[in-house]
Amino acid sequence: MSGDVGTFADAGNLEHCAKYLNQTLVTFGFPASLDLFATDPVSIARTCNCMYALLQQRQRDIEFRESTNDLRQRMQSDISRLEAKIERMDAQLAAKDRELATLTRTEAKNTAALKAHIEKLQQERDEFQKMVIGNQQVRTQQIHETKKKEKEYIKLQLQEKLNQVLMEKKKESSRSGMEIMNLLQKEGRQRGTWTGKKNDNDYYKMIVSSEPLL
């Protein structure tokens, strides 16, 4: 069969064309009752019903195509919106990636700076602790030296006081010795007039009582 509708049937192939049409109608689910040569009303009615079914199918095809076209347009619009949304999201994702990279570099820099600051603080703490220990040692040494000097000062004061006391005692002893000598000389002159043991004892008691106690 030719694809040109105008040359499908002619006066010489009507029977063959009618047979082909009935077979094709059966293939596509239509009733095979197309009798183009009938003159009775029943056959003509069947032919009309077949033509009506074809027209309904054509109408459904048109509606389906329109619906499909509308759906295609809506889907195309949805695809366009999705593509625009994907493009925006890609741009946002790229911006987030750049922001994340910046934050990562900043965090690494801050971490390094914080680590360096912590190490510096630890070093300063160690130095300060050494200084405190040194000051404590100096303070302990100063306290020891102060106590030592206080002891030496007290010892010196006691020594000076002792020397002073000894000097005073020595002076007193010297004066007492002279007084005893004077007393002996005086009493020696008087002893010649004493008699008996009792007078000798009184003489010694007088000498002892005149000696100051140390």
From TrEMBL:
Keywords: Coiled coil. It holds the Pfam family ADIP. Transmembrane segments: none annotated. It comes from the Eukaryota. Residues 65-131 form a coiled coil. The keyword Ribosomal protein does not apply. PANTHER family: AFADIN/ALPHA-ACTININ-BINDING, AFADIN_ALPHA-ACTININ-BINDING PROTEIN. Belongs to the ADIP family. This is Afadin-and alpha-actinin-binding protein. It comes from Aegilops tauschii subsp. strangulata (Goatgrass).
